[in-house]
Amino acid sequence: MVLFEVFCGRVCFIKDDDGFLLSAPLVKDYYKKKKLDEIVDPTLREQMSFESMNQFSSIAYQCLHNDRDQRPPMNLVKKELEELLKMEVSLWFS
User: Fold this and answer.
1) Predicted pLDDT at 22
2) Residues near 84 by Cβ (< 8 Å), separated by ≥ 6?
3) Which residues of the chain have pLDDT under 70?
4) Residue 89: how many other CB atoms lie within 10 Å
5) What's the pLDDT score for residue 79?
6) CATH H-level, domain 2-92: superfamily
7) Are 45 and 37 in contact (CB under 8 A)?
8) Could you tell me which of 51, 91, 59 has the C-alpha nearest to residue 75?
9) Tell me, what's the pLDDT at 18?
């Protein structure tokens, strides 16, 4: 959920001024319906490439699997996020 909190710019389980409540079931539903663009932080949308956003959300979604054994290990999550950061930095400075 922490990755989706970063991605959406909202804290989970706390209702924002706009009445939006971020939760794992809600995020999973938005992800499955390919509607994350409706809840992603608009500032991130401007700063991240579409490919990075898709990869980031995929990693975050995998971390929400109900079965702990199906979730990726943290060292893999860290590695994938570092690769995304490298990709974004290279885009900024190219």
Assistant:
1) 78
2) 52, 55, 56, 59
3) 12-20
4) 10
5) 97
6) Transferase(Phosphotransferase) domain 1 (1.10.510.10)
7) yes
8) 59
9) 60
